[in-house]
Amino acid sequence: MRSKKLNLLVGTDVVDKSNIEKLAKLSAVHFLSDIPEDRLAGILPEIDVLLIFSWPKQLTPDNLQKMTRLKFVQSILAGVNHIPFAALNRGVTVSSNAGAYSDEVAEYAWALLLAAAKRVVQLDLSLKEEKWTLRRTLDEGTEVTILENKVLGILGFGGIGSSVAKMAVGFAMRAYAYSRRPKRVKGVRTLSGEKGLELLLRKSDAVVLALPLTNQTTKLINRERLSQMKSSAILVNIARGELVDEKALYEHLVANPRFRYATDVWWYKESRESLKTDYPFLSLPNFIGTPHVSGPSGSATGRPARLAVENTTRFLKGLKPMNVVDPKEYLTSYPY
Fold first, then answer.
1. What pLDDT is stored for residue 48 in this prediction?
2. Angle ∠(304,310,315) on CA atoms, nearest 5
3. Which CATH number is 102-295 given?
4. Residue 104 burial by CB count (10 A; 0-12/13-18/19+): exposed, middle or buried?
5. Are 292 and 273 in contact (CB under 8 A)?
6. What is the rounded CA–CA span in Å between residue 82 and residue 330?
7. Could you give the residue range(s) of every CATH 3.40.50.720 domain in the chain?
8. 322: which residues sit within 8 A by CB, 6+ positions away?
9. Residue 36 three-state SS
10. Taking the domain 6-99+299-329, which CATH number applies?
11. Low-confidence ranges of the chain (pLDDT < 50)
């Protein structure tokens, strides 16, 4: 236990009162939203710990340089690519909130996968536009996709990827998972390395992206990777938009009408995730998009904020925090 209370700056309003009270027992809590702009420069040099959701716009690179006592940053989001690592002073420890959204986001990944496989959006629109009549047969592969006995590829085998794999059992799908570090999981064929990634993409009928956005994963799904996938494959993205090359994806969807892309995440424009795209994806029948609600659906449970607070209290007590990330992996990934 630390003998002196540290100064904690809370840069979000998603932490409830009871969790704030827990933090207040171990630290002097300050709220970024309550600090007038003319007082901010005087307070920032006293801050030891920072708890955030999305990155606060007040904490510009210039203001970050003033935070000379800052030692720990806790993200309530699972990913940390929104944190400007290059602007942080040396010696700052950053923790992600890995695992906080796993089951909820995995559920949403399956919702997108099923919607794409069964052409739910396209068929719904055809009814509303009176372009469909009742039939007793459908063309498997062009109008619907049967998932039973098909291969589900999962890129990223952390909390979300593992949860997606567990749910695959109920659909009698064979799960392949790509992980940076080799793992052995019952019922899942795990792969690693360049050859493992290529094998997964070639064999999979559907692929779920559950990787963090890092220097190594930015535009991982590019023109070459897309060409390795089946022309009738389904690609689901519940991770980060920048995992996929925007131009290459659009051209692939146009050239391969049986290929489907379903996403809840979007590319950054002007330093923020934006629903505006450089290409007219929404005009394509083989594209399904939702406005990044998988994460917020998890936030509604209160679990992400609770877990982030628990990890922050570990640091405040002088214990080693969990989910510490390597800054070197993120120095060029932040999509400014």
1. 98
2. 130
3. 3.40.50.720
4. buried
5. yes
6. 9
7. 6-99+299-329, 102-295
8. 95, 311, 314
9. coil
10. 3.40.50.720
11. 333-336
